[in-house]
């Protein structure tokens, strides 16, 4: 068996319904690999096909995928949940790791700007790099990249399906207010 086959074998997945639609989560033996958000999926079968296209050997659940699923169901029902789950960090650059660590600590119902995240990651001039790391975040909601906004509270890109509209929906669900221009109201 080649290395890739051995590595692919240790993949697990859970597909589950939330109040916003169907979600999926994939993990390795080392931790969570990817979250598939509910935006745009119409059925469990559609979500299973989407996961199978990226992780064809992920055909069973694990304790970790079930735990993540339970927490995500509670989150999408409007509960303030803390995602203290193992994450498979293989494939992340040192910069991504630093950024994701900062972002994972942003509390429910709060936001930080790209510049604030860059500063806390000890890269104060790397706000654009933070944006790139957010666009590559494979674990939306668990690493809550929707809580990172532009310097004036602008709703900038969101890589999960639904884009900025999904980001705004998640922030509103967490109790954030918006001004007339659609910016996060920091008052």
Q: Could you describe the 3D structure shown?
A:
The protein has 187 residues and is of the alpha+beta class. It has two domains: 3-76, Double Stranded RNA Binding Domain, CATH 3.30.160; 94-173, Arc Repressor Mutant, subunit A (Orthogonal Bundle). The chain has helices at 3-9, 44-54, 63-76, 94-104, 114-120, 127-135, 163-173; strands spanning 11-18, 21-28, 31-36, 112-113, 148-149. The longest helix is centred in the middle third of the chain and has 14 residues, at 63-76.
Classified by CATH, the class of the largest domain is Mainly Alpha
Can you identify the CATH superfamily of the largest domain? Winged helix-like DNA-binding domain superfamily/Winged helix DNA-binding domain
Q: Order of SSEs, N→C?
A: HEEEHHHEHHEH
Mean pLDDT: 90
Helix content: 25-40%
State the separation between the terminal residues, measured CA to CA.
58 Å
Short note summarizing the structure:
This protein is of the alpha+beta class. 37% of the residues lie in helices and 14% in strands.
Write the layout of secondary structure elements.
Elements: H1 3-9, E1 11-18, E2 21-28, E3 31-36, H2 44-54, H3 63-76, H4 94-104, E4 112-113, H5 114-120, H6 127-135, E5 148-149, H7 163-173
Parallel strand pairs: 4-5
Antiparallel strand pairs: 1-2, 2-3
Helix pairs in contact: 5-6
Structural features:
globular; disordered N terminus; Arc Repressor Mutant, subunit A; Double Stranded RNA Binding Domain; alpha+beta; two-stranded parallel sheet; 5 strands; three-stranded antiparallel β-sheet; 187 residues
């Amino acid at each position: 068996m080649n290395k890739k086959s051995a590595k692919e074998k240790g993949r697990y997945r859970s597909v589950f319904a939330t109040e916003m639609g169907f979600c999926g989560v994939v993990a390795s033996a080392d931790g969570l690999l990817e979250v598939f958000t509910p935006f745009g999926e119409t059925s469990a079968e559609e979500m299973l096909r989407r996961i199978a296209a990226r992780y064809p050997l992920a055909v069973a659940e694990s304790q970790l995928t079930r735990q993540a699923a339970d927490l995500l169901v509670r989150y999408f029902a409007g509960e303030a949940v803390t995602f203290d789950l193992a994450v498979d960090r293989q494939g992340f650059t040192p910069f991504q790791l630093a950024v994701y660590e900062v972002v994972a600590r942003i509390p429910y119902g709060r936001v930080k700007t790209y510049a604030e995240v860059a500063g806390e990651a000890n890269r104060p001039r790397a706000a654009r790099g933070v944006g790139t790391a957010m666009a590559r975040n494979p674990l939306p909601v668990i690493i809550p990249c929707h809580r990172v906004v532009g310097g004036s509270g602008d709703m900038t890109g969101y890589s999960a399906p639904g884009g900025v509209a999904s980001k705004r929906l998640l922030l509103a669900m967490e109790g954030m207010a918006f001004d007339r221009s659609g910016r996060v109201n920091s008052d």
